[in-house]
Request: fold
Amino acid sequence: MTDLATTSGKLPRIVIVGGGFGGVELAKRLKNKEVEIVMLDRHNYHTFQPLLYQVATGGLEADSIAFPLRKIFKKQKNFIFRVTEVTKIVPEQNILETSIGPIKYDYLIIATGSDTNFFGQKEIEHYSMPMKSIPEALNLRSMILQNLEEALIEIDPVKKESLLNFVVVGGGPTGVELSGALAELKKHVLPQDYPELDMNQVTIYLVEGSPKLLGVMSEQSSKKSKEFLEEMGVKVLTDVRVETYDGKVLALSNSQAINTQNVLWSAGVKGALLDGLPKEAIARGGRVLADEFNRVPGFDHIFAIGDVAAVITDEKPNGLPGVAPVAIQQGKQLAKNIIHLIKKEKLEPFKYFDQGSMATVGRNRAVVDIGKIRFQGIFAWFVWMFVHLMSLVGFRNKVVTFVNWVWSYFSYDRGIRLIIRKFDRKSMTEDPCAK
Amino acid sequence: MTDLATTSGKLPRIVIVGGGFGGVELAKRLKNKEVEIVMLDRHNYHTFQPLLYQVATGGLEADSIAFPLRKIFKKQKNFIFRVTEVTKIVPEQNILETSIGPIKYDYLIIATGSDTNFFGQKEIEHYSMPMKSIPEALNLRSMILQNLEEALIEIDPVKKESLLNFVVVGGGPTGVELSGALAELKKHVLPQDYPELDMNQVTIYLVEGSPKLLGVMSEQSSKKSKEFLEEMGVKVLTDVRVETYDGKVLALSNSQAINTQNVLWSAGVKGALLDGLPKEAIARGGRVLADEFNRVPGFDHIFAIGDVAAVITDEKPNGLPGVAPVAIQQGKQLAKNIIHLIKKEKLEPFKYFDQGSMATVGRNRAVVDIGKIRFQGIFAWFVWMFVHLMSLVGFRNKVVTFVNWVWSYFSYDRGIRLIIRKFDRKSMTEDPCAK
Reply:
């Protein structure tokens, strides 16, 4: 079926599974090198995950934060791309099994990123909404808007309450940003769109299992983000865990029960594992173990980078954070090391350079940690916007996003509140029969 | 279930079914009048249908040509909106049956627009792609892009050919614009995205049953549009009808058979009828009969405007063309007449003012008829762009669309070629399980 079942034997073939931050950086760095690059992804586009929450809350179009992978590499001659689902690695044969047939590799790079982790709780997985991909963010947007429409005509007060309670689970950057964006929707958009609804009935909760929000950031940023959220009317519950959720009532570890049909799950991630690796190569959280050269132990030609890789060192016993800069830096370093390998030179170990971290809570409110420097508020918010705008792939995306942000800033509006694909609560996915 | 099952009795309630050009214009014109307006639509947004083909071919985001209906009317106090599917009119009781329960009306306006007409050919309906709504345009985009990805790995030459033959059926404005846009994709975008594909294998056909393209326009525009399309490499077949299509082979009335998996159907429309009207009120093409006051014969309080209305007069025995200006003008006139009715004044008959018509074929190529004035080419193209840009609802949409068009013009690119929802050929709709 596929023309990639064998290698030509002329150039070493580097197969990259995943077109995220790490995979794209690696492939770019191998431009003009004497290699054949094959990138595989289930989608034909790269997703700028840090802004998914804006797609979910009507601030940006999906197309503004995604970029066709073929377009990124349109001038790169040694690059081949295929849309496919990789089902298994067969390391003994240097082969990947995929939905378009077997694909042979000389070097394999696992850059599959992470999936939402429901920690084995099947019921929660079924009834709550994850937000790790563009279709998921769009489903979330549809669900929120449909529940508001439904609340409008619901006369049973208990059912109505459950449609108007929004619970974000997980107080990392995604959870903080999502609950902040919902609070702004509630304040600036919903009163105009739904004059018939009593806004006092709309409640937004943020539930975090640990004692603090933004666990990876400084104490100061953590405290300030909580303060910001509370100013904006979000009920922040820290040190509280979700026990069960049956689609109607969310039971919490502090014995509180929230009557809600809107549970947005951002409480954890796990590696997006591929089948076929031995148990010894798998780390905690479904990630792939990797040494300081990003090599998977036991294999000379298999590497893992980005969110899926667990680079465990004595210094960092939990590995590195699952953020874009780690993936990008690993992709860059691995490009060098693959060339070293081919030339039979000595490999250089990967060193993570921490550029700092930031999160936005809402209009004029963000928190930034850069080394020992911490700042919060409006300047942090501008820094956050600038960094994210500049990181978007493509000039068109930058301009369109900029226009949308400027527009939202001055109009207090979020223009993109369309239910394009109806969400179906029974199947918890979009309604395939919607016209 | 719904609070609209009865009227308050204070103000006359005007129920408008459909948030298209006619319905929106009518509701706007009734602002500040002593009436209660209830608008019902299956979607929560207004669609700018003339630009759907740009969504289907990657030129614009869906969100740029749609606008939330609630937002259009956010400052209109006498306006109520509900997302619902109307299933039936019960004229004896002045009631609509809907998916959210019964809704009572004093005046009913049917502004449901049109659906794709397959003229009863079930097999063609199943296997070909219509383009009358945003989800349909997005499905079309996904199908085109997925078939290109598939062609890349297909080794059977017959199957490969069928993935690379594109057939647009119907030579009205939509068919002309769609085939032109595909020709530009083929020329400027696909060679860079798919360097592995031989562009000579990609063929675009436009099949029209009558002897001329753009039947409603002047002879000159018709001829010129054909010339433009042929210059751009489109194979234009006029006076040729589709006989059968089984998903693989399209059989034509000139005995030609085209091996294709891409059939885009824009060959006809029919009224989007509601159940419950008597046979005498239904005209040819599934439309609702209406007199010069847009009143449905036999009913004093039921009106039809826009594409769904068949205003048959001696002057216009086939009714008026199914275009936005007719709907808008009827909406405007009907607003006046409803006020007349309420005040028991004499009604004013509707007179259509033909502002002219236009169609774009491609870059620098459009045709315009305004009264006796006809022009084609680059100036016509700028006029077309200006008119369409200005007609888009919302300042944000205008700016974002303008940025996209300027970007496409200078880069020869169409940025938005993402397969966001995978299209499933078996069900001929999007894949509900895609992540």
Notes: The two ends of chain B are 35 Å apart (CA to CA). Chain B is about 30% helix and 25% strand.
